[in-house]
Amino acid sequence: MSGTAMRASQVNFENAMNQVKLLKTDPGNEVKLKLYALYKQATEGPCNAPKPGVFDFVNKAKWDAWNGLGSLPKETARQNYVDLVSSLSSSESSSQVKPGAESKQGAYEFLVVTSEDGITKIMLNRPAKKNAISTKMYQEIMLALQAAGKDDSALTVLTGNGDYYSSGNDLNNFTDIPPGGVEQKAKDSVILVRDFVSCFIDFPKPLIAVVNGPAVGISVTLLGLFDIVYASDRATFHTPFSHLGQTPEGCSSYTFPKIMGSAKAAEMLIFGKKITAGEACAQGLVTQVFPDSTFQKEVWTRLKAFSKLPPNALRISKEIIRKNEKEKLHATNADECNILQDRILSDECMNAVMGFLSKKAKL
Length: 363
Ligand code: COA
Known about the structure:
Layout: H1 3-22, H2 29-44, H3 57-67, H4 74-97, E1 111-116, E2 119-124, H5 135-150, E3 155-160, H6 181-201, E4 207-211, E5 215-216, H7 218-221, E6 228-232, E7 236-238, H8 252-260, H9 262-269, E8 275-276, H10 277-282, E9 288-290, H11 295-306, H12 311-322, H13 326-344, H14 347-362
Parallel strand pairs: 2-3, 3-4, 4-6, 5-7, 6-9
Antiparallel strand pairs: 1-2, 7-8
Helix pairs in contact: 1-4, 2-3, 2-4, 5-6, 6-13, 8-9
């Protein structure tokens, strides 16, 4: 980075520190821990403090948050801090403009987030790119999930705008190489994926996928972490990891064999077999399939009825169903990301991604 760019980023960082003090609403403990961790990482680098005792809850939570950033470079931490503060400020200012408004759109560039009838709907909104998940979108989805986990809705829904649910990871994410080179890129990418998947593992209330069209890659693998998956009969489910020289994420190496048995899971996760919504339902990945013509009407009627159930009972029932496997899921997530980090640097992966991008360039 040039000296001028470095000074500009330091100024943005200092502005963001001042902006935090001006926030009128408490962003909640989770966000405050994230801010603390990013601040420490940006100013001191990777966590170097001794681990506090297990009963020193507050300092242990802070230490965990900082340590969880691993070797994230100072510069990236500084930028993430600035981005997080800016999203908090803009969500605050949009709620000041329209007090009580149901749409939280102002805070997000690639999502439409609405709360109505006890349901928070997070809609991926990049239809021209088939809702491919860019780095910014990963961050926005994490913020939207953190907010939805704390709001007063009973259910949270993830869906896509346009003809696709999502085409998975934006393959351009691999091309934006930071000053630390491709190794740094691979590290940053897997930290992002690990944090992203963790938000789904820890999501505290019923999470429902409304799969409006084809789903690819991480948008499929995550489905094992949802409580209900409703799909249009137009949806397909495709995890072409081997084709891309990559390996499964989203905890699918654990959830898919558990849901559908190891043979069916292998066909999808190792060999990239694309399956229909009907097949996904027969295999237990999808709860129910609806004809596309009545999909939205039938699904939302049902979800509105569910959302009237007592919210605490819903939340606690989910917790009791999921709690025994949470530790296993976090361990799986960490393992998958470690492996993925090497895969991203492999010739197999780089050639496949360049193949996709250069095919596009030639059109
Ligand atoms: N990453 C980056 N760009 C993507 C994308 C992705 N995962 N999925 C779609 N896009 C882009 C396309 O490049 C295209 O961009 P352009 O209009 O600037 O050229 C646009 O979205 C529309 O996609 P297009 O390929 O023209 O539509 P299609 O109907 O012919 O094919 C897909 C749709 C999803 C089958 C195809 O785009 C694809 O294979 N994408 C890659 C999916 C993938 O491998 N995901 C990662 C899994 S691990």
